[in-house]
């Protein structure tokens, strides 16, 4: 049994208890767990904690928009001769729980619908000649079934959910056999509980200390604290409620470890003498500490142990997928279904059901004009939309200048070969750009061939100045070519950011750095995903500033070999 298994399951029990007390106010929960007995036990516990008869709706992974939001019931409409409205899953889940599996593969359009319903408690229907605003207040349970390094559920959606529990490492035995269900929690109203003075400020300070930028996080933590107090029968929150809320809502959102307390400076000799004559008990020092510092110490164990690895991977990048969509011109005819839209079936695949559903409300009027029994007009035609699979092309941009260039190039060569092996399985590609002296050149065009890559990488020279701007410009040109093909470019820049050659090929560190920052800003403006690996012996502020200007994730690996580079790159892609 894992040492942390009881603690993880107890955390899940506490989250379920608070969610049952204030479902819609807390948004919901992300559960990382594959299908199996542990997930079934979690669902059984959640169902038992809710009042009997609470709606418990499962949402299929791939479903049309009409099924989600509601629309025309085609069969009933044709039978009745008048429009018959069918409730969608969002409205059916009102007052209950909506379960969504395979959240890591959720379509962004579906996620946007869920986000709007979570924000407003309603679903707005504007389709099939229907305009309505239907109540849809529910708690959302997202099941993340992805493997490490794969895509994560949409960040904009998980930001609206208070809790996140990782049960992927637990087994049924870890839960204690059949004794896993907890008694149903007492249903109390958190809205009747007030936040004590200073507790709102404490939650905001905790979020800032953990590097949480979203304003929803402290708001959800405040609701969780009120729910915790209501469960205990208190009319006002206390420090225990704030600590529990921070542990359950804020800890898993941390993007940095809290700074250690500043070391106390040695007081002057006269103050030391005064303190020795008037000693104070140690307990006073603890009492004088701010509440947020005490809570940070208490929730330190709840901060993800692999936080650094998660930050390196940059899971759920904010620009994911934009490159492929920007380069696509012709409509896709195969891939993941995205619903239907008005279009020309001569160019795209006809969606017969959606076409009939669009024509159904007009049948009585068209019958009066003497048209056929089922009259379909041009404006009724609907075609299917698809999201085709797009390849990822990883573009290595390697600083081949200076005395340590041979070492860096050896790392890059090894990393390219390791990433290419993974690309072959995914049908992705990799490319290599090297810059040194007064030029930047594409050493390895996009390819999946290991044999070709090894032949071109063999004997790659190094040394000379650092034309960083030229390297970034070459990367941008190659990324544009990849994007126009409909693929997704991902840039990996390995450099110490010590630019000393400008775009014009002339020396001068100041001009070279200005050119490099301008080229980096152009990459961010075009929306390219990128990762900057700082190869300096020590992390450099210039490299970090360059990553910020590029909109890139920053990773300092001063002594990385090829395998460590590949291990950092593969999950980031």
In a nutshell, what does this entry contain?
It is built from 24 helices and 17 strands. About 7% of the residues have low confidence.
Shape type: globular
Strand order of the largest sheet: 14-13-12-15-16-17
User: Which structural class best describes the helix and strand composition?
Assistant: alpha/beta
Shape-level CATH architecture of the largest domain: 3-Layer(aba) Sandwich
How many angstroms separate the termini? Answer: 33 Å
Q: pLDDT under 50 segments (min length 5)?
A: 177-187, 279-287, 312-329
Radius of gyration: 29 Å
Number of helices: 24
Under CATH, the topology of the largest domain is which?
Rossmann fold
What CATH first level of the largest domain would be assigned? Alpha Beta
Count of discrete domains: 4
In CATH terms, the superfamily of the largest domain is: von Willebrand factor, type A domain
Give a quick account of the main beta sheet: strands, pairing sense, barrel closure.
6 strands, mixed
Query: Quick one: how many beta strands?
Result: 17
Portion of residues in beta strands equals: 15-25%
Measured as a percent range, the helix fraction is 40-55%
Mean pLDDT, to the nearest integer, reads: 77
